[in-house]
Every structure is written in structure tokens, then in C-alpha cells.
Amino acid sequence: MPYDFLNNNPLLADMSPEKLQFLMNFATAKKPTDIKEMMPFLLSAINSAKSNNIQFSEPETDLLFQILKQNMSAEESAKADKIMNLMKNRRSGS
After folding, report:
1. Which domain holds residue 84?
2. Do residues 63 and 37 make contact, with C-beta atoms less than 8 angstroms apart?
3. How many C-beta atoms surround the C-beta of residue 4 within 10 A?
4. Taking a C-beta distance cutoff of 8 angstroms, is the pair 3, 29 a contact?
């Protein structure tokens, strides 16, 4: 299973059934393999979660991001990490 890092993940232990179902659907969905397609895919997932009144904590968002990067090349994954770090810095006001 390509999502072995989900097994015994402490974030999943206290997750609501609705949020867990959303996460599993996200994990099994066909995901983009390059950075240009990643942001629209991620925004669509976020909007879907919002429309279902599902909100994710920062660690849960990091987990979603890790799932999203599973099939990316090392180069694309590094670019995605830079974008995520920029987004985090922007949210924190740095």
C-alpha cells in the first residue's frame, strides 16, 4: 500500500468519521504528478471539505499534503515543499 505512513498515525485516532472518510477518499483519488496541477487539485479538495463543514488542523493539512506528494518526482516534491512553506509563512505573518 503506498500510504503505509497512514497506518497507526496518531492524527487518525481522534479524527471524526466524516473527516477520516474525506481523508481516505483524498488518499485514494487520482492525484496530479506535477506542481502545476497540484494547486487546483488541492484547492478543489479544500473547497469540497469546506462545503461538507470539514476543517483540518495544521498537522492534518500537512498529512494531506504528504499524501498529495506521494507520486511526485523528487524535483516536483521539493517545489511543492517550497510552496507549502511560503503558504505557512504567509499565514503566520512572517
Report:
1. 4-25+35-92
2. no
3. 8
4. no
